[in-house]
UniProtKB/TrEMBL annotation:
<dbReference type="GO" id="GO:0009231">
    <property type="term" value="P:riboflavin biosynthetic process"/>
</dbReference>
<dbReference type="Pfam" id="PF01872">
    <property type="entry name" value="RibD_C"/>
</dbReference>
<feature type="domain" description="Bacterial bifunctional deaminase-reductase C-terminal">
    <location>
        <begin position="2"/>
        <end position="173"/>
    </location>
</feature>
<protein>
    <submittedName>
        <fullName>Dihydrofolate reductase family protein</fullName>
    </submittedName>
</protein>
<dbReference type="InterPro" id="IPR024072">
    <property type="entry name" value="DHFR-like_dom_sf"/>
</dbReference>
<dbReference type="GO" id="GO:0008703">
    <property type="term" value="F:5-amino-6-(5-phosphoribosylamino)uracil reductase activity"/>
</dbReference>
<dbReference type="InterPro" id="IPR002734">
    <property type="entry name" value="RibDG_C"/>
</dbReference>
<dbReference type="InterPro" id="IPR050765">
    <property type="entry name" value="Riboflavin_Biosynth_HTPR"/>
</dbReference>
């Protein structure tokens, strides 16, 4: 069965965005782009919340064709155009969106159906609200976190609304990047 892996940049004190959704504190450079790109390019399904999906749709379909496109822009744009996108939204209508499935209700059933399909792990990109919904329904199987060397003090937390303890197992793929970001990979340790 496929797993849902939450891919997030996070502050040292556990926030994924500032109080107003700011992400200008996230450290991204070519080394990080290349490393993340290697794993992302193996995947064939991306999971987004409505806000993150709209942001991606406004940029990635045309990013690779821009005269100022970087190597990362070209590669990620190519990947984005062919990856199957699953979007959690009660307001977006699925009217012929290419390679896109909209989930607006029956979240556990529909997510579990997708997990049963063949393919690689499903990467949940950003999307704090969608992540919170999936956490509350115990549908996330792992966390691929990039801890940025900053303490925000306030903002949108990664973990909220958790009723019971969630045990995690750290995978041995921890890595520190030259920009100070540390990668942590956890799987949810279910009995």
């Amino acid at each position: 069965m496929r797993k849902i892996i939450s891919f997030m940049h996070i502050s040292l004190d556990g926030f994924v965005a500032g109080p107003n959704g700011e992400m200008d504190w996230i450290k991204i450079d070519q080394e990080l782009f290349e490393y993340v790109g290697q794993r992302i390019n193996k995947g064939n399904t991306a999971l987004y919340g409505r806000v993150t999906y709209r942001m991606m749709e406004n940029y990635w379909p045309a990013a690779g064709a821009s005269p100022t496109a970087t190597k990362h822009d070209i590669e990620h744009s190519r990947w984005y155009s062919k990856v199957h996108k699953v979007v959690l939204s009660k307001t977006i209508e699925n009217t012929g969106l290419p390679h896109t499935t909209i989930i607006c209700d029956h979240l556990p059933d529909k997510i579990n159906e997708i997990k049963q399909q063949p393919g690689e792990d499903i990467l949940l990109f950003g999307s704090p609200t969608a992540t919170h919904s999936l956490i509350q329904q115990d549908l996330i199987d792992g966390y691929w976190l990039f801890v940025n060397p900053i303490i925000l003090g306030q903002g949108i937390p990664l973990f909220t609304g958790i009723k019971d303890k969630v045990k995690l197992k750290l995978l041995p793929t921890t890595r520190q990047f030259t920009n100070g970001v540390t990668e942590l990979n956890y799987t949810v340790d279910r009995p």
